[in-house]
Amino acid sequence: MGRAFEYRKAAKLKRWGHMAKTFTKIGKQIAIAVKAGGPEPDMNPALRAIIANAKRENMPKDNIERAIKNAMGKDQSDYKEVTYEGYGPHGVAIFVDTLTDNTTRTVGDVRSVFNKFNGNLGTQGSLSFLFDHKCVFTFKKTDGLDMDEMILDLIDYGVEDEYDEDEEENSITIYGDPSSFGAIQKHLEENGFEVTGAEFTRIPNDLKDVTPEERETIDKMIEKLEDFDDVQTVYTNMKPEGIQ
Q1: DSSP alpha helices (H): ranges in the chain?
Q2: What is the Cα–Cα distance from 165 to 235, expressed in whole angstroms?
């Protein structure tokens, strides 16, 4: 898990570089959560998780409340979660997670970038074997916490027996089966843990070496994809800098 954590930490530094775009992306997530489970965070676990992420990204409270209010409006568009996957330049695998109210527009935008960089957009599921899909929870470490005992409590939910500890933030990060997202969140909340982040991620199971020149090209492609408001997150199996 150490390599996976290093990958995730390095990849996150490249994500959502501009605050305005970050807030736009989180606003769409809030819209989906409100449509599915209502506007009250106490009654909507998915919304609570997104609000925790929003706070971690320093999204102002007013922006969060406005996004919830907008999601309740009659004219609010219905967003859909759509994933695109394929190979970019130099054989690097790329996953693109989107939230869109117009799939025709979004697939056109994504395909244009793949084409520009001589990539190949594949069919959905064609690259799933290259990545592990996980749900990730980060929570504040409490005094006297026995992680071995906690993992035993959560193992039935598909939580892995390895975890990451951030001493600087005094936090713990655990990884689990995406289908158990709600059950894991409920367990943490019922046991009094302060959840500071909850999300889904894709961790490559085999990292691909690239040259500095190849990395520069792939980074440019990722930046082009992330420029689209519909794009939430871009994942690749390119080995991040600094990982041996």
Answers
A1: 2-12, 19-37, 45-56, 61-71, 103-116, 147-154, 181-190, 212-226
A2: 23
What 3-state class would DSSP assign to 77?
coil
- Angstrom distance (rounded) from CA 209 to CA 81: 30
Instruction: Tell me the pTM.
Output: 0.81
Are the beta carbons of 72 and 44 closer than 8 angstroms?
Answer: no
Handedness of CA 40, 44, 47, 48 (dihedral sign): positive
Distance of CA 96 to CAs 112, 132, 187, 223, Å? 13, 14, 30, 12
Distances from the Cα of 23 to the Cαs of 4, 57, 67, in angstroms?
26, 8, 9
pLDDT in tens, the chain (244 residues): 445 555 555 555 444 445 667 888 898 899 889 988 899 998 999 999 999 989 888 899 999 999 998 888 755 567 888 999 999 999 999 999 999 989 999 999 999 999 999 999 999 889 989 999 999 999 999 989 999 999 998 998 889 988 988 888 899 999 999 999 999 999 999 999 999 999 999 999 889 999 999 999 999 999 999 999 899 999 999 988 765 5
